[in-house]
Amino acid sequence: MTSDPLDIHTLPGHLIRRLHQISVAQFMDHMAAEGVDLTPVQFAAMAAIHRHPGIDQASVAGLIAYDRATLGKVVDRLVDKGLVERRVSQADRRAREVSLTRGGAALLDRILPIVRASQPGILTGLTEAEQETFVALLQKATLAGNDLSRAPQRDLPGRHAAE
């Protein structure tokens, strides 16, 4: 790294922010091309809900490393779109359990191949081997810094994130 802190183009934080902008723009472009109104965070929430039907909203927030209040608004939008249904938990009346609707599951099945195919484009300019290395390093850095986040990733009890 450079010794000039004013050269933002060498700062990891700035570069990560720029790469995030690129990632979101590409995701939104791919969804728009399919006529789908879905954000990356909404996709992440739907993927977590799909893997864990009947999960409570707070656990979804933990799985995708999003704060609970904002995740509630994300779920509100997914409910409004008819992609997710929410109900009061039988185990804890304060909790809200969420599941994909049939339409939500069908949409997720439809866009999953598009999301997968679009991932290499986020790292345009890197070889396939460099992309694999980069992703491995991102995972390592993210895991190491997880507890420094304002919304750390939290696994479900008895499970690991990779499951």
Automatic annotation (TrEMBL):
The keyword Repressor does not apply. Keywords: DNA-binding, Transcription, Transcription regulation. It holds the Pfam family MarR_2. InterPro entries: HTH_MarR-typ, MarR/SlyA-like, Tscrpt_reg_MarR-type_CS, WH-like_DNA-bd_sf, WH_DNA-bd_sf. The keyword DNA-binding applies. Signal peptide: none annotated. Residues 12-143 form the HTH marR-type domain. PANTHER family: TRANSCRIPTIONAL REGULATOR, TRANSCRIPTIONAL REGULATOR, MARR FAMILY. This is MarR family transcriptional regulator. It comes from Leisingera daeponensis. The lineage of its organism: Bacteria, Pseudomonadati, Pseudomonadota, Alphaproteobacteria, Rhodobacterales.
